[in-house]
Inverse folding.
């Protein structure tokens, strides 16, 4: 008699995966390809996900890190969802490039906030991760040296502003909600007059995905986050799972990265996906798990998302047809 497969309960986080900003950015590339034909040039990964990038490459998108890598062309040049420094569209205009900006509107909000506060005479603090595309773009909205980057509580302790009474902060949109709250509290304790953003900078999708992980983490023997290693919001989901009581949490890009040696003592597995990870990757992982386990699936929903962002004007008529 064949041995029965071990039982595995999967708890799925909802919401998970694509957010409105990612969805919009991918649509911009796909619609540009439909309307203008290949190639369409994209500066930086449109979103931080290998599967998405490879899929768009196959359709005719050409990815570059800097504009100087693009030959003279009348084809569209697209800026990624993470946003760019002001010098990038300036360079594009100098070269008479036709460009489309796929910056997430919630990232643009942070850019506008930083500019507004700086224009009012505030010294700007940015809470974020050094080297991340979004942080480079946000710092690049203002003159060199105008923004001070803070990553940790230790950075807050070492901060020596020129005028403590005219400090203001903004944050990267994909940070850990709890870690950022600690840093903000420390800033407010040291500098009581510090100006906060009008509205929370950490985006709704980051907040919702972290809340869903917190909800299920304590009930899981392990939790998988589907996402890319260079995706900030995906990395934070791993941190949140561990902080919320799940002793094993790991980030994988696809079913191919499943490590079966880790499953020896797992009977309840949590699954979520970062905001730039497509649902097809989650489905593939569950399909592979079903080949080895007797799987039951429970979905735990902590929020409903209905946010939609408009496409750039140049693509809207095409989208409506």
């Amino acid at each position: 008699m064949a041995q029965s497969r071990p039982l595995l309960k999967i708890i799925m986080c909802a919401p998970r995966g694509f957010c409105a900003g990612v969805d919009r950015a991918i649509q911009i590339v796909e619609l540009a390809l439909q309307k203008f034909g290949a190639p369409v040039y994209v500066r930086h990964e449109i979103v931080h996900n290998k599967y998405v990038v490879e899929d768009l490459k196959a359709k005719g998108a050409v990815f570059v890190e800097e504009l100087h890598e693009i030959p003279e062309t009348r084809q569209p040049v697209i800026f990624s969802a993470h946003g760019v420094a002001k010098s990038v569209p300036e360079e594009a205009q100098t070269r008479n490039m036709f460009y489309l900006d796929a910056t997430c509107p919630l990232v643009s909000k942070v850019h506008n906030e930083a500019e507004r506060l700086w224009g009012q005479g505030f010294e700007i603090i940015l809470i974020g991760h050094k080297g991340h595309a979004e942080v480079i773009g946000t710092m690049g909205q203002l003159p060199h040296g105008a923004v001070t980057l803070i990553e940790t509580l230790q950075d807050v302790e070492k901060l020596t502003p020129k005028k403590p009474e005219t400090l203001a902060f903004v944050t990267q949109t994909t940070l850990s909600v709890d870690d950022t709250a600690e840093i903000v509290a420390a800033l407010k304790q040291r500098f009581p007059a510090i100006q906060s953003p009008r509205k929370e900078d950490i985006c709704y999708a980051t907040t919702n995905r972290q809340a869903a992980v917190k909800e299920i983490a304590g009930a899981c023997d392990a939790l998988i986050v589907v996402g890319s290693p260079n995706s900030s919001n995906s990395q934070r989901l791993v941190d949140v799972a561990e902080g919320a009581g799940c002793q094993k949490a790991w980030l994988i890009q696809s079913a191919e990265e499943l490590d079966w040696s880790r499953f020896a003592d797992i009977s309840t597995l949590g699954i979520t996906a970062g905001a730039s990870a497509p649902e097809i990757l989650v489905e593939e992982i569950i399909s592979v798990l079903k080949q080895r386990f007797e799987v039951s699936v429970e979905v735990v929903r902590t929020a409903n998302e209905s946010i939609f962002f408009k496409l750039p004007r140049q693509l809207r008529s095409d989208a409506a047809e």
The longest strand covers residues 7-14.
